[in-house]
Fold:
Amino acid sequence: MPDVFDVIVIGAGPAGEVAAGRIAAAGLSVAVIEKELAGGECSYWACIPSKALLRPLDLAGEVTRVPGLALGELAVDKVLARRDEMVSGYDDAGQVGWIESAGAVLLRGKGRLKGPREVEVLPGDGSPPGTSQTLTARHAVVLATGSGPVIPPIPGLAEAEPWTNREATGVRAVPRRLLVIGGGVVACEMAQALHGLGAEETTLVVRGDGLLERVEPYAGEMVARSLADQGVRILPRETVERVERPVPGGEITAYLGGGETLQVDEILVATGRRAATADVGLSAVGLDDHHPVGVDDSMRATGVEEGWLYAIGDVNGISLLTHMGKYQARVCADVIVARAKGAPDDLPGMRDRADSIGSPQVIFTDPQVCAVGRSEAQARAEGFDVRTVEYEMGNVAGGSLMGVGYRGRAKAVVDERRRVLLGVTFVAPGASELLHSATVAVTVGVSLDDLWHAVPAFPTVSEVWLRLLETYGM
Structure:
C-alpha cells in the first residue's frame, strides 16, 4: 500500500464517495478511509432504510383515498425484508466495488489528522488488527466524516440504551409502546413508520410548540394532524425529566416535566445531530475538535495554513442533508483538481451557491413536506420586501383525481422588488416530485413573468403553479 496520494478523503459516505470518484476520474490518486461501512449513514441507517419503511405506508394512504381499491393486511415481515434488501443486508461489498472501480483506494480504519497533509489510519471496525499507518497527501485532505446523534443529558437516559436513527431504521421487532423524544424530521418520519408497522402506543414528547419548526408553520400543523388521526399522541411544550430502566431490555419508565409518567418498551431519541469532529485530529492542525469545520464557498477549511484541508457534508455544519453533501463534494472535487493542475479554480461550478439560497428538503411523512429556499420568517428576518401567496392543492383538478380527502397546501414567498421566488413549500401526499421545479425556479431566480409562460400539464397537481401565480395577480 503506498503512503503518498494526491488526495486523501476521510469518510466513505455519500459526500466522500462523490468527491473521491470525481477526483479520481480527473486522474489524481485518491485514498478513502472508512471506519464503518462504505456508503455511510445514509445508505444503511438513515435515508434509504427509513424511506423503505415509509413507502408501504405511503402507498396504503394512496389506496385508502381511491374508491374501488381494497387495502390488504400489511405484512410487516416483508416490509422489513425489503428494507434489508435496500441496505444490501448491511454488506458494503457493492459500495466498495464502486469506490475501487472509480479508481480510488479504500482503507479500512479510522482516519485522523496528524499534521499538515498527514493522516494517521488506525485500525477500525472490520479492519485487520495491526499497527497504524501514516499517509501523506500531495494536494489535499477532505474531511467527510458526517455527523452523529445527540443524546440529551437526561438522568438515566443513556443507561436506558435509547434508540437513535440506527436502531429505529434497523428495527427487527416493532415495540408495542414507543416514546419519541423530538419533533423534527427523524422524530416525525420514524414515529409514523413504527406506528404504522405496529407500535400501538406511540407518543411524541416535543419541547417546542409544534412539529417541524424549521419549515413553514402550517407544515408542522398538517403533519401533526395526520399523525394524530393515525393514533400518535403528541405532547407539545413537554420534556422528559428522568428515565429508569432497571432491567436491561426491560420496561422503561419516563417521568415527564408536566407530572405524567409513561411506561414504554423503547425510547427513540431524535433531538438533532452533531458534526463528527471529536476524534478526527482537528486540534493537530489548529482547529476546534468540538465544532463543525468552518469552510469558504469552495469548501476549503478556514484557519488552516496553505489551504490543504477541505470539509464537506454534515461535518461542516452548513446543511445536514445527503444531497447537499454530494453537491458540496462536486464543488470541492472540481476545485481540488483545478488547483492541483494549476487550472482556473473560480469557474461557476466551483463555488457553493445553493446553500445560501436555501437547500431543498423532503420530509417523507404523510403528507410529505417539501420545501426549498427561505421560509416567510427567514425572508422577513433578512430584510426582503416579502409577499406570500398560498393555495389549497386539493382544489387543483389533478389534486381531486388523487382521491377522496386529498388535501395539501402550497406557499410561495416572493421578493416583491425583483419579482422572483425566495422560497416554495408544498405539503401534500406525493408532493416530493413537485419540488425540483421549485428548486430550479428559486435557484436560478426565474421571474414571475417568465414562470407565467411555463404551462403546467392538465390534469396534474403541478397546475398548482398556475394557481399560485393567478392568486398573486398575474
